[in-house]
Amino acid sequence: MRSLTGRHRDFWGLTEDGLVWAGKSLMVDLNADRKKQLMDAYLSLAAFPDVKPGLEALKRQGLKLAILSNGEPKMLEAAVKSAGIRDLLDEIISVEEVKIYKPSHRVYWLAADRMKVDNPELGFVSSNNWDGVGAVSAGIADFWIQRSAADIPEELGFQVDVTVKAISDLPGLLRF
Fold first, then answer.
1. Greatest CA span in the chain, whole angstroms?
2. What digits encode the pLDDT tens for the residues 7-31?
3. Residue 144 in contact with residue 126, Cβ under 8 Å?
4. pTM of the shown model
5. CB neighbours of 158 closer than 8 A, spacing ≥ 6?
């Protein structure tokens, strides 16, 4: 059996692989132009309406803000530009720096290192419960954005610290 240890493929490549798989499984003809069009759509995604005002409010409170993502740097830069939030972020951190994906502890610890804080000083916000649980298991406080009651938490042995409905709910919860 061949070992997968040490293998890594960036998220852009994995996204393309997933798109090809989905096309085949749904019997959709994904010619080169259609595939490029769908992949390029990833570079112009819009943010949820609460994101920019929520980040602006957090920034007014003096917080340093960053993105920590499994996404590839090119994808992340395009996404924050498209969402109009680049100027609100102090850091954009990609797993590409450590070549391993969340929920590995190494990724969450990378955020603490890049933000120059200890894990207890770091707050992690995600709309993916599994991602928040990963942060909690790495010793980082988590705020899960549960956008719908239909989004139920996974049973992973840890629970997130705080659940909110929108990122704009966070400034009122944080007191310094």
1. 54
2. 788 889 989 999 999 999 999 989 9
3. yes
4. 0.85
5. 133, 136, 137
